[in-house]
Fold this sequence. Notes:
- The chain has 188 residues and is mainly α.
- The chain contains nine helices and two strands, in the order H-E-E-H-H-H-H-H-H-H-H.
- It has helices spanning 6-22, 40-50, 52-61, 64-72, 81-99, 101-106, 112-139, 144-173, 176-184, and strands spanning 27-30, 33-35.
- The chain has a two-stranded antiparallel sheet.
- A hairpin with a 2-residue loop joins strand 1 and strand 2 (33-35).
- Helix 1 (6-22) runs antiparallel to helix 2 (40-50), helix 2 packs parallel to helix 5 (81-99) and helix 2 crosses helix 8.
Amino acid sequence: MKRLSSRIIAVIGVMAALSNVLSLIYVPLVPGVNLYFLVQVPYFLVALSLGPLAGALTGLLGTLVMAYTICAAGSLGGVFVPIGNAILAGVTGFLAERVRIFERMEKGEFFWPVACAALGEFAEVPYMFATMIFTLTVLAGLTVDVAVKIIMVIMGKALLEVLISSTIIMLLMQNSSVRNLLKSLGGF
C-alpha cells in the first residue's frame, strides 16, 4: 500500500473536488432516477493509479456533494453513499494493484479497469443492501418485499454506472500518454 505523501494527498483533494463537481451532472433515466456515472471517473483513476487507500479516500470525499443532495431531497440514505463509494474505490484499487493493471494494459489487456471496478461493485453490494434495507424499512416504513424490489433497481443502476464509468476509464487508458501520466502519479 502506498504511503500518503503530500503529492498524493493533493491528487486525492483535486480528484475528490472534481468528483463532487461531476456529481452535479447526471442523466435522468425516469423521473426520480438519475445516472451519476461521471462521479466515479476521478476516483477510479486514483484507485487504479495510486492504490486502494488513495482510491477509498477519494471515493469517500468525492461523493459528499452527492450525499448532501440526496439528504436534501429528503432521503437520509444519502449519509451512507460516501462509505459505499469508498468501499467501491478501495476494492477497485486493491484489485488493480494485485493484477498489476499497468503491466497488463501494456500487453494489450484493456478490459482490466472494467473487471476491477465491476468486482469492486460486487464487494460494495452487502453494504449497499444493509444500509438500504435499513433506510427503506426502518426509516421510510416500507415493507421488506417492497424495499427489496427498490433495492434491486438501485443496485442494477449502480452496476450500470460502474460499467459506464469504468469503460470510460478503459478507453482513456488505451492511450499510452494517459497511462504514462497515471504511472507518473505513482502507478504500480
